[in-house]
Amino acid sequence: MPPPTPPKYVYVTGAGFTRAFVPDAPLLVDDFDNDGLVDKVRGLPNASRLLEWERNRHPDGFINIERLMTRLDQLMPYDLSQNAADEYRLLLTELRRAFLLRLSRARQGHVASHHFDAFADRCAANESDIITFNYDDFLDEALRRTEVWTPEWGYGFFCRTSLDAVSPVGHRAPPSGPRLLRLHGCVNWRPRLGHTEPFALDSIVHHHEWQGDWGTRYPFSLIDQHLESEPLIVPPVLSKSGLVAQPVLRLVWTLAFETLAEAENITFIGYSFPSTDLAARTLFSEALRDLPREKMSVVDLATEEVEIDRFKARYRSVLGEIPDHRFSFDGAESWIRSLVE
Q1: Paired sense of beta strands 189-191 and 204-206, if any
Q2: Whole-model pTM?
């Protein structure tokens, strides 16, 4: 008789997952050169007022980037009468740039690559799919080192290397590794130069320095000139229209729904279930409706009882009564260590 099929594990990662292994990586609420943003919109009354309101909600003047990006992305009716649309568009552009710069600088600091590798090896060995809301590509790099996952085939759609923008590249057959389903896009998903939104699937390429022998053929900076300047990323939004508009995200969200519906075990790691992301809440509540709550696990970092209770309540408001013993608040690093011990 053939061996029994192992249970289908699915992992969901949020900002807390990356931050556990990359101390300089940004969190949901953080400093994104906030004083610099104030200077960028100085003299623009609507944008300045909105940025001030957001900063005043935190004792250190930090920004909840998902909340602010959502507000800037989804205009209110009165914004048009106040001529705020152009100001908000500028602030959103500057906020995206500041966020991407934070991610770029984080790569230059400490990165606990061995933890990413341990998690990637686990997923590769069990063919466990990963659904993520993160924009960074630290996990992608670790998965690539397993040699059973490639960016060309591992995102759920065929994503060519950016080297294709200047020279045709052959691609090997798809491996049978896990899929990394990115619900909000990625810093290394770049549209080819000249393509406009909504971006067709074949216009998206993966572009990063950890993949390929750029230097022996074409300088990385040369390839960069043949791509649009900003990656394909979208903020968590109250409205689902932004997600539906992009073909690649329609596909990835469909695959995520199917993956979750077939899951036999699911673990959320460092994901905060932000109230701004109604689309994600709908996805999980509908796709996981038949999965027993005993098969759900939640990993995060918290020490205060009030914080723990609030966290549990947030999950249960979407997914129902997940038992107390299925929550772990020792953090992602402790959880990763338990995988290899």
Answers
A1: antiparallel
A2: 0.90
How do residues 324-337 score in pLDDT, each as one tens digit?
999 999 999 999 88
Separation between Cα atoms, residue 333 and residue 180, nearest integer Å? 20
Q: How far apart are CA 242 and CA 199, in angstroms?
A: 12
Chain-centre distance for alpha carbon 85: 26
How far is Cα 96 from Cα 117, in angstroms, rounded to an integer?
A: 28
Q: Report the length, in residues, of the chain.
A: 341
Q: Which residue has the tokens 């799919």?
A: 129
Complete DSSP assignment for 254-321 = HHHHHHHHH-SEEEEES----TT-HHHHHHHHHHTTTS-GGGEEEE-B--SHHHHHHHHHHHHHHH--
The residues, ordered by sequence, that sit 6+ positions from 161 with a Cβ below 8 Å of its Cβ are 151, 152, 169, 205, 206, 207, 211, 212
DSSP 249: H
The amino acid that residue 54 corresponds to is E
What pLDDT does 67 receive? 86
CB-neighbour burial class of residue 218 (10 A; exposed 0-12, middle 13-18, buried 19+)? middle
Identity of the amino acid at 286: E
